[in-house]
Amino acid sequence: MNTETHKKYNKSEKGRIRSRKYENRSEIIEKRRKYDESRKESRKQYFREYQKEYRKRADVQEYQKEYRERLEVKKRRKKYDKSPEEKERRKNRLAERRRDDHIYRLNKNMTGAIWKSLKHKKNGRHWEAVIGYTVNDLISHLEKQFKDGMNWDNYGEWHIDHIIPKSIHKDFNECWSLSNLQPLWAIENQKKSNLLINLDDKGPNKGMLF
Fold first, then answer.
1. What does the alpha-carbon distance between residue 209 and residue 192 come to, in Å, rounded to a whole number?
2. What pLDDT digit, counting tens, does each position of 182-204 carry?
3. How many helices (H) and strands (E) are present in the chain, helices listed first?
């Protein structure tokens, strides 16, 4: 296109429309960027839900099972799991999940506590099966007793306390029953240690350690 033709094109209606499009290009790009940013979380949520449903499909589960059983896959996975990068990634991921997911953290803490209480003889059973209530039962029980300021975001600043301490209790099931568990601020729990609080004393010694 020569110069004269180019000038004529720019003065034409089609040329002016195209020119305006280019002038507004940066504005259009910015609008698109904001639109994409606003949809980022919803897209992530959509793909998470899609993947969750996809993995539930019987044919997908069967394929994944067969794939994991392949010898070369097992060797590659074993080598990858032992790599420093994967160990560090796994460590960070679990730390992040413990920080952000109070149900996961509570599950892990209860698993370790029950395992220790049974002197390492949990025999592969989930702690819920061992003591007869679920993590949701425990959460509901504790939340009913929350003191001002307690919430799951500051779990760690308060502990799950045995009203009658484990060192005193003779019966495992009674020791770990919901009625023997309460949320207690960490500093109060440390002061209490393995002492028994006299909850029944109505006199001046009520709440004293003995």
1. 7
2. 999 998 888 876 665 544 443 33
3. 12, 2
